[in-house]
Write a structure and sequence with these properties.
single chain, alpha/beta, Spore Coat Polysaccharide Biosynthesis Protein SpsA, Chain A, binds uridine-5'-diphosphate, binds magnesium ion
Length: about 350
């Protein structure tokens, strides 16, 4: 028999976080115990190559009734890991959190009290964000762009610490989109959203797992996943450019008749042509982004592959677990006696 459904599930993606996990456990569990509600922590190991899995296993053995661990066999990215965590979570409320202690576990209570008040989506606004200046600068720009061209209305898109009600999680679990941006998607599903300010800390240890490349990819997911305005903008620009060049042709033709042949302004012409070639290339690249999204989708590959799940059962029986919506081989363990495949 599975354990009783808890009130709160805390979902945490973990990718090479051996340096922060001990401190995370030391702060997270007491903070949750202090709330006085039933809870489970769902850790999703996103194919870590360091000792993260061993540490998660240890923690599972220490607190089997409050801990579930989903192990991916490779790195599928933070949002896929969170999606897996959501589909394995069982609580009435779900709070997602980063492992690196940038989102203080002590703030979870604030989100829970909002969910208690009947809000189904609790967004967060980081007070004094502790990240590099260039990250803050870029994300301010992306926030503005997203606000303008997508229907997503959230103040601070980058913070993954959020609270969701079961109804929103069910909607997220039904979403088959491969590459997505969970807080934005959830905000579209929410009927009664609210945002609260939370504190933000520096990464406790280790380095950000996002390279500039993966940050750019993530932001493309955010924009192209929620809006086709960039594509439409290109047809608008195309129309404007053709109209202007038609006028230019007429003007040049009249000039040719009135003033005779001339070869002035050749370099200006080069400048103008290069600009438009650049624009056209950007347009093709942008089109590629959308085609790529469609391609990823039509291949219908699983979003992630689960290698094993560590979870305790009430009767201690070893039974085949829920195979998740996607491929999964679940290894079920006795409370206190963790064995995994
Ligand atoms: N993460 C993950 N898979 C990845 C990259 C990151 O599961 O491919 C996790 C990481 O372990 C952390 C969270 O996602 O718990 C946020 O990552 P990070 O702190 O590196 O991102 P940043 O705060 O720099 O945006
Ligand atoms: Mg971080």
């Amino acid at each position: 028999m599975p354990l009783p459904v808890p009130k709160l599930s805390v979902v945490i993606p973990v990718y090479n976080e051996e340096q922060v996990l001990p401190s995370l456990f030391a702060r997270l569990y007491p903070a949750l115990d202090a709330l006085g509600i039933s809870y489970e922590c769902v850790f999703v190991n996103d194919g870590s190559k360091d000792r993260s899995v061993a540490l998660l296993r240890q923690q599972f053995q220490r607190r089997p009734r409050h801990t579930r661990v989903v192990l991916f066999h490779a790195n599928f990215g933070q949002h896929s890991a969170v999606m897996a965590g959501l589909s394995y979570s069982r609580g009435d409320y779900v709070v997602t959190l980063d492992a690196d202690l940038q989102n203080p576990p002590e703030e979870i209570g604030k989100l829970v009290s909002m969910l208690d008040q009947g809000y189904d989506y609790v967004g967060t606004i980081r007070q004094q964000r502790q990240d590099y200046w260039w990250r803050r600068f870029l994300s301010r720009g992306m926030n503005r762009l997203r606000e303008r061209i997508t229907p997503v209305r959230i103040t601070d898109q980058g913070c993954m610490m959020r609270g969701y009600s079961r109804s929103v999680v069910t909607a997220l679990n039904q979403t088959r989109e491969i590459n997505t941006f969970i807080p934005a998607l959830a905000s579209l599903y929410a009927m009664n959203p609210i945002e609260v300010p939370i504190t933000h800390e520096e990464r406790y240890a280790g380095q950000s797992k996002y390279s500039l490349y993966s940050l750019i990819r993530l932001n493309f997911d955010l924009i192209t996943g929620f809006s086709v305005v960039p594509l439409q903008l290109f047809s608008m620009i195309g129309m404007a450019v053709s109209t202007l060049s038609a006028l230019l042709v007429v003007y040049l033709f009249v000039r040719r008749i009135v003033m005779g042949p001339e070869a002035e302004g050749v370099f200006t012409l080069f400048g103008v042509v290069f600009f438009f070639i650049g624009l056209a290339l950007f347009g093709i690249g942008l089109l590629g982004e959308y085609v790529g999204r469609i391609y990823a989708q039509v291949r219908e590959r699983p979003r992630y592959i689960v290698e094993a799940v560590l979870e305790a059962h009430d009767d201690g029986a070893l039974e085949a677990g829920d195979a998740s919506p996607l491929l999964a081989a679940a290894a079920i363990t006795d409370p206190g006696q963790a064995i995994a495949r």
